[in-house]
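Incident log, structure service

09:12 report received: a user says their structure output differs between two submissions of the same chain.
09:20 pulled the input from the user's history:
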Amino acid sequence: MSGRGSGWVVAQFLLMGAVIVGGLLPPDWPGAATTVRRGTGVALIVVGAGFGVWAGRELGRALTPFPKPKPTGLVTSGPFAVVRNPVYAGFLGVFVGYGLLSGVVALALTVALAALWVGKSRVEEGMLDDVYPEYDAYCRRVRWRLIPFVY
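09:34 re-ran on a clean worker, output below:
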């Protein structure tokens, strides 16, 4: 998966589609704690989408689905002051929320999507480090890749 990282992008979008389709497949969640699960799912979708869109707006012209960064300047403000990959973090929340609403298969596939985004983020961060000399200092300041206090 070299160059711009097209392989990562194709895999990402295929897996995102699989999560959506997986939400239409059985098994559904058991009836226990349905209100809490659904409320949590909706909250994660709303908060995750908001965080991801905020991150995308903060990136502006630098936003790209490819791991290879556009040389428009290192963005460290807004959600990038909280986690280094807030677009992935936000949309991971969306997909976890969707899995909680739709079913077991979607949530299981979301775990695979999270693993893919972890790998892609590592590649992307290596490329950012190559392009921006200040990236190492940014990583020391913003410790978490995706989820504060977790990873």
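09:41 both user submissions now match this output. Likely a transient worker issue. Closing.
09:42 reviewer note: Residues 34-62+73-151 form one domain. The chain is about 65% helix and 0% strand.
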